[in-house]
C-alpha cells in the first residue's frame, strides 16, 4: 500500500466564498475535467503567444481565451520536473533529486537520489481517482523504469500509453526505449509518430470514458517533443527551412519586439546577451546546417500545436470543452545538449535514424535564443532554465473579463497538485507531510483584485546538479554549481543582469541561510552535489 502525501483538502463552499471562484463554475455541481499538457525541452519564447515566429495558433488561442503566467518555475530538468509536477513535492522528497536511473542499469543511491518515485509520496491521479475521476496518461513517464511498481498504472492511472523511459524515437521507438500499453511492451506500426499517437489515444480514452458515465477525467498528456532527437515530419520541417538563415541575433531581436507588443513583461526588459559565436563568423555550411536544425525544432513545435488543435476539437465535439481546465507548460528551458552549434543536418531530418535516440540536437546557441530574453537553458536555475511558459484555459472557470491577460505572480510546479486537489474537492489522508504547493485556483477564477494577490507568501526553493535557487517575493538568489551566489531584484531586473549580492550582502546572507536550512531538511547534497551518472560509473568499477 502506498502512502499519500497531501495537499490540504478544500471544501467547495470555501473555494467559492473565500477564493472568489467564478460564478459560472461555482454554479456547476460538476468538478472540472483537468488536462495537463507537458512538453519537453521547449524554450520560454518558442510559442507565438510568448514571442515566437513559430506558428502555434491553437496554443495561442488557449492563451487568448485564458491566462498566461509570466513567472512560473520548473525544476530545471526533465524527470525532476515530472516528479515535482506529479507529486506536489520537491524532487528530492520523492527520490528523484537528480535523475531517474537509465533503462536496464541497476542502481542504488541515497533516498533523495534513488532514481525512481518512492513509496511515501502520492500522485495527482492517485488522489483524483480516489475522488471519482477517470485518470489517463499518454506520453513520456520518466519517473522510474526498473520496477513496474513505479509505472503509471501502479501510480494512479486507469489507462496509459507511452514511453516509460526518458528520450525515445518519434518515428520508431526501439531497444529499451519502446512503447508501453498499460503494463505491456508493444510494437509500433510504420505510420507511427509519437506526438500524433499520444493525442489520438488520449482522445480515445476521453471518448470512451465520457460515453460510459458522467465522472470527470484527469488527463496527463506528456509529449516527448521537442526533446532530442528532433524527429520532425518532413512537411513540418520544410515549412521552416530557410527561415533561420538570418541567425540567432535576428530571431532574438524579432522575439523581443513581439514580446513588447504582447505586453508580456510589465516594463521593457534588457535581453541577456547571446553566448554563441557571431553568425557572420560561421561558414556557409555551418549556417545552412544551423538553419536546418532550427527548422527541425520549429517543425516539432508546430506539430505539437496541430495536435493541441485536435485535442480541443475533440473536447468540443463531445461537449466537454467548457468545463475542462487545460494547463500547458514545458518541463524546462530549451536544451543546450548537443554542443554549441548543435548536431545534425537536413539529411538527418529527411532520413532519421530509427529505433535510436541518435539524431538532430538543438545545441547551446539556438537554445540560448529560444529562451529569449533570459540567461542560460536546461539544467540551470537562472530564468532561461527554470522559467517556463505556462497557460491556463477554462471557459467555465476563468472569467471572460480576464481572458488574454497575465498572471504575473510567481508560482511553481508543486502548486499544480494543490490546485488540482482544490478544484476536484478531493479528500486525502493526513498522516504524511503536506504538499509543498499552494493552490492558484483564485488566480484562475477570481476577479482582477483577487488575481493580483501573491500566490506565495513563503519562499520557493530549488536545486538541481548543484545549481540552486531561492525565490522570495521579488528577490531571487541563484547560483551555478561551484560559482558564487548571485542576487537579483526581478521586479527591476527580470533578465538577471545586475547582481546585487555585494550591495545587498545582508539580504544575500539571510537568503543563503534559508536555502541551506531548506536543503538540509530536504536531504539535498551540498556543497558537493550528487551526480547519478558518476555514481553509476563508480558502482560499475566496484563490481569489476
Give a structural overview:
The protein is 32% helix and 14% strand. It is built from 17 helices and 15 strands. Strands 1, 2, 3, 4, 5, 6, 7, 8, 9, 10 and 11 form an eleven-stranded mixed sheet that branches. A four-stranded antiparallel sheet has the order 12-13-14-15, with helices on one face. α4 (78-87) runs parallel beside α13. The longest helix is centred in the middle third of the chain and has 34 residues, at 284-317. The chain is globular and about 60 Å long. The relative contact order is 0.19. The model is unreliable at 1-27 (pLDDT under 50).
State the helicity in percent bands.
25-40%
Q: What structural class should be given to the helix and strand makeup?
A: alpha/beta
List the total number of helices: 17
Rg over C-alpha atoms, rounded to the nearest angstrom = 22 Å
The largest pleated sheet is described as: 11 strands, mixed
- Give me the count of strands: 15
Separation, N- and C-terminal Cα atoms:
37 Å
Poorly predicted regions = 1-27
Mean of residue pLDDT values = 93
> How would the global form be characterised?
globular
Strand content: 5-15%
